[in-house]
Design brief:
Elements: E1 13-14, E2 20-21, H1 33-42, H2 56-69, H3 74-81, H4 87-90, H5 95-99, H6 102-122, H7 129-147, H8 171-188
Antiparallel strand pairs: 1-2
Helix pairs in contact: 1-8, 2-3, 2-7, 2-8, 3-8
Amino acid sequence: MTPPSPPAPGPYLQTVSGRFVNPFEPDPEQLDPHDIARALANVCRFGGHCRPFYSVAQHSIIVSELVEERGGDVEDVFAALMHDATEAYLGDMPHPIKHRSPLGAAFKQAEDHLESVLRERFGIKADVPEIKRVDRALLATERRALSGVAWEWPELDGVEALDLELVAWPPDEAERAFLARFAELQARR
């Protein structure tokens, strides 16, 4: 039997599971946690500009753990795990380009729409303030540990790096850990 294909030509991604996703007009039924885990495990933070390969999947797991350590409930923690899920379908755009360029403005519009569909599909809680605080602190930590501090980044003004030792995982390990965390949180929801 031939697997289903996209309904028409267009900007469809074929996921590792064989699904098809148009990130600009996503079908919620095509959004799958296994595809998200694999893709995020293969996407490198900092647009690849870091010494070791360090995945968005690992970053997302750490954010979820930190939100939990800081008293977040299971919905906050699940939202933290999924906070970068759009990057499974759109890739990761480094912060300065995303927030300070015309390309970034167009990207942000697509990302916001995809994020709303992901929220609905997976029941992700919106607007968890602790995610942004933890995400920024972890960014400062990752920058220090994985890429180096060469000049001041305005988005990190007043943000202190965390006292964490980061050991980058290979993609297969990051995928397994993301899926395990996803399953654990789903069971608690």
